[in-house]
Specification:
The protein is an all-alpha fold and 192 residues long. It starts with 15 loop residues before the first helix and ends in a 17-residue tail after the last helix.
Length: 192
């Protein structure tokens, strides 16, 4: 029972597997984003000095790892489901939450796929000397266009992730409900 006499809402959390997929994806993106920005800037400033190639190779491999994690994460979600909506959400918040989540999933697939397509069109796809399948024939003009789309979709992903994090913090700090605890159950609850 809450202090106002209302019964306490039932709070569900994501499964352990879903939480692991989520936090590993967060970690990989937290590495991938600054690496991507730094490697491009460093390469342009140094006329692609020796370490630049290793940074690009790392960026490609992390991108493939993110793609695999997201595919596994989606399979886990479709097989095991997700908890019901947080009971304290307004109807409009539920709609925005669902749209944001699925848009993030889509971009987590689109960004690495665009990177793979762009790299394929640029030339042989061999991060760290490992030959990986090229998805397109070599075409420098197309590669440039695809890299532009890769960058644009990455910026959109960052914007949606920032909105997602901002909403989670808003719910935890301002609304004091259980939204953040669904993905971080060890965090002290603020909703009594």
């Amino acid at each position: 029972m809450r202090p106002n006499g209302q019964p306490a809402a039932k709070h569900e959390t994501y499964s352990t597997g879903a939480r692991h997929f989520h936090w590993w994806t967060v970690l990989l993106i937290a590495i991938q984003l600054p690496l991507g920005i730094f490697m491009v800037n460093y390469g342009e400033r140094t006329n692609f000095a020796a370490p630049t190639g290793k940074m690009y190779d790392s960026h490609k491999m992390i991108g493939l790892l993110i793609l695999l994690f997201v595919l596994a994460r989606l399979a886990n979600r479709f097989l095991n489901g997700a908890p019901g909506d947080e009971p304290t959400l307004e109807p409009w918040q539920r709609i925005v939450s669902h749209i944001t989540h699925w848009a993030i999933y889509a971009l987590l697939l689109i960004v690495p796929l665009l990177g793979w397509l762009a790299t394929s069109a640029y030339g042989p796809f061999k991060p760290f000397g490992i030959p990986l399948p090229s998805l397109l024939a070599e075409n420098q003009y197309l590669a440039k266009q695809l890299y532009g789309l890769h960058k644009l979709s990455a910026i959109l992903l960052v914007a949606l992730v920032a909105m997602h994090v901002g909403a989670a913090l808003f719910h935890y700090i301002i609304r004091k409900d259980g939204v953040l605890n669904r993905m971080w159950p060890g965090l002290p609850r603020r909703d009594g």
